Structure prediction request, 176 residues.
Amino acid sequence: MVVGREELRAGVARLGAEIGADYPDGVVLVGVLKGCIPFLADLVRALTVPVEVDFLAISAYAEGTGRVRLVKDLDTDIADRDVVLVEDIVDTGLTLTYLLGELRHRDPRSLQACTLLDRTSQRIVPTPVRYVGFDVDDDYVVGYGLDHGERGRNLDMVVALDQGDADAYVESLLHG
Ligand code: IMP
Ligand code: MG
Prediction:
């Protein structure tokens, strides 16, 4: 196990307190589908400031290239708004860099990033992430929104995938 239930709960509460303190007048959370879903659902409920939620979805141009394109855009006009982009994990930083650039074009009043998990060892582009839940090491992780081939998102903790048969491992975690 990498991040257990209780740690997740405490981490999300801490992030909610940090974001709430920084945006007393309200904030727009922009979630990156689909990995952000459980995290964002808990994070919004940890906020007591006015909060709006919107989503982006991206798709890789080609596996492993690090290049992405928007396949679902925002419905919200974020001009002059305070925006926090919410990610499941920042790895190389390529995705986040692309998305922050995309959102910056729309002239938000402020723009920051929040990620549940941060794997700084793999960073290719220096990427400012204001709000970080947990640092993780090199092992691929699933759970609490993060998937391996669309499986494992519904685990309520974050676990490292062992080498070997990852599919069987996810299956055993879900079904005991
Ligand atoms: P980056 O562009 O390399 O920073 O990749 C970030 C994206 O890759 C994340 O938003 C995830 O969708 C995916 N990703 C990277 N590492 C993991 C992992 O360990 N588990 C699940 N998804 C991952
Ligand atoms: Mg992601």
